[in-house]
Amino acid sequence: MRPPLVLTIAGSESDGAAGVQADLKTFTALGSYGASAVTMVTSVSPRGVRSVHPLPREVVRSQIDAVAEDLLLDATKIGSLGSAAVVEEVAAAVRAHRDRFGVIVLDPVMVSADGTALISAEGAAAVGTSLLPLADVLSLNMAEAAQLLGRPLATSIDEMRDQALALQATGPDTVLITGGRLPGEDVVDLLVHPGGTDLLRAERITGRRVRGAGTTLSAAITAQVARIAEFDRVGELDEIGEAGTADDLVTIVASAREFVASATENAQDWRLTRGGDGYGPVNHLITLDKD
Ligand SMILES: Nc1ncnc2c1ncn2[C@@H]1O[C@H](COP(=O)(O)OP(=O)(O)O)[C@@H](O)[C@H]1O
Ligand SMILES: Cc1ncc(COP(=O)(O)O)c(N)n1
User: Fold this and answer.
1) Structural domain spans, the chain
2) Rounded Cα–Cα distance for residues 104 and 25 (Å)
3) Is 111 helix (H, G, I), strand (E, B) or coil?
4) What is the pLDDT at residue 270?
5) Which of 25, 46, 103, 208 has the fewest CB atoms in 10 Å of its CB?
6) Ligand 2 within 6 A of 8 CB?
7) Residue 276 pLDDT more than 70?
């Protein structure tokens, strides 16, 4: 007997809204056991980012090796990395034992919600050349897609689709571009996968701006992928019906989006700070709420 087992390779974010902290809460809330390899340490409050410290590459490698050599991973999320050296080290670690990481979900974090760069320009370029080819699923926002491709921000769904296809051609089978920044009554995410293209629409939540939605979404996708792997292991795929078929990823992304939407709604009236709240977190623990 073993639970769905998930690794996050990502940065620490001190106020708990995004980064490794949000990943581990999300994995837990969705029933997975979470392990972590910390890539950088950021000092952040709801008012913004104070400092960003990428860790030495060997410190990152040592954590990844310790986890991947001994734990039976079902899925791995790769998030914020900070520097080109860390990007290259993560890519080398994945290449060294590719079969040990399960499904790889890449969320190539570039800029925080307050506009602070979370990776160097060389690091961003290295994500494109070294990590995209290793990812199974790429989950990213419109700004990250534009930066990776060296194109302007998409201004329409057609442009989002073009960008998703261009990214898919670099390696990952499945590409999800989130459309939080595309104006409109609905928020539209675009999913390109081996079976075609799906537009995922949801009502736009108009209250307080949130931080960590993209992080939480990619963590939720990773946790759900791991649950499917676990069902497969114990021979119970039939009991979960649709989610065990080739439509897996469409179903998984739709349920991950619902999780982020209810986590966002639920935290709208949270007040966590001494002063006026800036960007607030989502409530990652929404599934544990018994009321
Ligand atoms: N105002 C909103 N209302 C409802 N869902 C949203 C809203 N903004 C973003 N989302 C959803 O949150 C997820 C992350 O989107 P996005 O904001 O584009 O990413 P990031 O947090 O990386 O900038 C997506 O599934 C998107 O549809
Ligand atoms: C360490 C770290 N990792 C990721 C994010 C992205 O946050 P978002 O989910 O708001 O894009 C962040 N701000 N800090």
Assistant:
1) 5-269
2) 19
3) strand
4) 86
5) 208
6) no
7) no
